[in-house]
Specification:
Two copies of one chain form a homodimer. The first copy, chain A, is 32% helix and 23% strand. By secondary structure, chain A is of the alpha/beta class. In chain A, a hairpin with a 3-residue loop joins β19 and β20. In chain A, α1 packs parallel to α10. At the A-B interface, α3, β5, α6 and α12 of A face α3, β5, α6 and α12 of B.
């Protein structure tokens, strides 16, 4: 490729993208080769394919299967550079991004920093429960689960074996459902082969959901089926039940019941991961940045927010904001890339309209629910569809190949092969996104 | 499998194996189904295939490709159990192993705890250099290398770019040679694609070796060829050169020269990883446990040591002890398994004789040296042979498949795909084995 475009030589316009998630990498693809100087900033040097984090946590995949090096993506793209840095503050007035490796001036800004786990201000809960939003967190959870099994075998922890082998997942969205399903399959297939000394019936998996059904974003029919799948695998599903408190051992539920567990996985809420410097007046529900129909931040022509971190009420069908899912992020990023070029060409911006292609969740082997364009699938076909779509959505052929090989192996062997405590979990989980 | 043998019901004889390395897993295989109660203790829940650690460090393989869960190996073997525990002390007199999860009594003991990096008492060196003996260490090194590249791009560290991009490997054994070769290939193939902003000629790779040649265990011819391969890849090889001091930035060499580097990889020595409780009088050269020709510890009929941690001078061909390599460990473990059964049957023990099948090392793509049974191969064929043998030596079909897929991918793409800083290296490497 011969080109006159070069990041070092380009001076303006300079776009800074904060975050290499689904929106960030979509922007990289769309702006590749364009006469815009682009700097992508992320605190990690890789993109995380979050939908499969629960498979890392449950030992089905290694982190390298779902993480994609951002430099591999950006590599030789002439107009785009990557900087691994932690954003410390954004100064919208000064068009400045302050980071731990220095300050960056911009002409245009796109905040695509995604979301973090939401504990709704409950500090005790936050300190004692496990999150599942990043690779280190997924590895921590994998270690924690396996360490609990080891504790159960060695009999070193005083107290009931039931507490050690009791796993509680809170939140009936896709992450919660899929994590609970994976834990149930571990009980079914891994415990009997690896821990012959343990009575596998002592292991319990609970799924706690505050609303009336799991997978509330799907149809009632799919919710019902997902619940049935979970119960077939032996997961105890508690609907209309909220968590009142959890001190690391004792879990108190809203209906007065209590449960003892060493492991509570919190998948019951997310909130915008907003960089410092954005005024509170610009934040809406779920700590998300208020944007207009063009994803512009209130009062700033040149500052945008897209994806999970953005709250848009201008899309008629979604007056309460869009769901915090990957397709919204990708579509907003794609439109922003076009709008930026329209703006530079003096054209009017186009307003965002979310096009919902459907949703899906897998519970376990041959068990999934999928809804798309009016089609509803459940069971085996939905499960194949789920796998196919996730393979297509993964970034890069290598990761697709590695995930495929691992899935095939796990399917044939009924195993989750990566039962490694690479770094023991010591009680302090990597917090934040 | 129907069997009357059961770990819980078996009372004696009880064998404790310390360490799930090459010797440990060979013992598990050999003693599977035998009327002996066996407890394998390791502080990790996995076996580490150490010969490929350098490929994890250089981003060619993920940890799950070379680590094998010990419970997957032991699984349903009726007479063997695994305990994840740190050995705190061995009391040979009392036939007791004290660990962080409790005490274990034994009738027979086999210490197979392997080796640790030897800094020959140089504390400063130990604190400032990187080791490569365990999975966490390999991941730390991977992070460190990538973080140095990021530093070089961001220009945040004061001082010369040369120091940041200068990598020094100390020790010309297989680990040192292979690591230096991998770094040189990163310069050749990864730097130009991922770090287009950097001048790749600024990156230097040095290999420092105190003796007259690299791969001293091989023939002079192979040593010479390996050196040529390294130099073809651009590695600067310094023979007859020792490290005098290294403070984390300034490296002083024995010939008075100095070099600046942020990254020194120490592969210049190993020593026995001896559990506490073994008297100093029982330790020989390289901190290894003195054993007789049957691997028995001096003065104890029922306590054995095998592999790297054992020092045997009774094998006529090896009056100065055996090399600290996997084949010795496997052969000693295999003989010990037979000798234990002979002992239990009242038969005489058989003395150990090491059968050297040869050795090999790979420098880079199409570049390896291999010697076996008088055959000497160099270059392409040796490289194919090296890969084939390592695939065969890996534990478990899944790991073989995953390594094969990754190798094929890396070969075709000229990449090391796993360029992930999963956990940033913060300056404190996991020490010890």
């Amino acid at each position: 490729m011969t080109t006159s475009i070069n990041y070092q030589q380009l001076k303006s316009p300079h776009l800074i993208i904060i975050g290499g998630g689904f929106a960030g990498i979509e922007l990289v693809k769309q702006l590749s080769g364009k006469p815009i100087k682009v700097t992508l900033i992320d605190k990690n040097n890789y993109h995380t394919f979050q939908p499969l984090l629960y498979q890392v946590a449950s030992g089905g995949l290694g982190p390298d299967a779902i993480a994609y090096p951002l430099r591999k993506l950006i590599g030789r793209i002439p107009n785009i550079a990557f900087r691994m840095a932690k954003v410390e503050e954004i100064q919208l007035e000064n068009q400045l991004v302050r980071t731990d490796i220095g300050d960056f001036s911009y002409d245009y800004l796109c905040i695509a920093s995604g979301s973090a786990t939401n504990f709704f201000g409950n500090k005790e809960l936050q300190e004692n429960s496990m999150e599942l939003k990043s690779i280190p967190q997924a590895l921590d959870l994998r270690s924690k689960i396996l360490q609990e099994f080891e504790k159960a075998v060695s009999g070193t922890e005083s107290g009931k074996l039931e507490r050690i082998l009791n796993f509680v997942v809170v939140g009936g969205g896709p992450t919660g459902v899929e994590t609970a399903g994976a834990l149930a399959e571990i009980r079914k297939h891994v415990l009997p082969s690896d821990y012959t000394e343990l009575d596998k019936t002592l292991m319990q998996v609970h799924l706690v959901e505050a609303s009336e059904r799991v997978l509330a974003a799907m149809s009632e029919n799919s919710s019902q089926k997902a619940k049935e799948f979970l119960e077939q695998l032996g997961v105890k599903v508690h609907l209309k039940t909220a968590v009142q408190s959890y001190d690391g051992q004792l879990l108190k539920l809203s209906d007065g019941r209590t449960m003892e567990t060493n492991t509570l996985i919190w998948a019951a809420g997310v909130k915008g991961e907003v960089p410092a410097g954005i005024e509170a007046s610009n934040l809406g529900r779920g700590n998300r940045i208020l944007v207009n129909g063009f994803n512009q931040i209130n009062g700033y022509e040149n500052a945008f927010a897209v994806g999970d971190v953005a709250f848009m009420s201008a899309d008629e069908k979604y007056p309460n904001g869009h769901p915090m899912v990957a397709p919204v992020a990708v579509q907003q990023a794609s439109l922003f890339a076009k709008n930026l070029q329209r703006k530079l060409a003096g054209q009017d911006l186009v307003a965002f309209r979310y096009f919902d292609k459907g949703s899906m969740a897998t519970v376990g082997r041959h068990k999934a629910v999928l809804e798309s364009f009016g089609i509803k699938m459940q069971g085996y076909l939905a499960w194949l569809g789920w796998m196919f779509l996730h393979l297509m959505l993964l970034v890069g052929y290598r990761n697709r190949l590695v995930v495929f090989v691992n899935w095939l192996w796990n399917y044939l062997s009924y195993q989750r092969a990566i039962r490694l405590i690479t770094r023991p979990y010591t009680g302090k989980q990597s917090k934040g996104k």
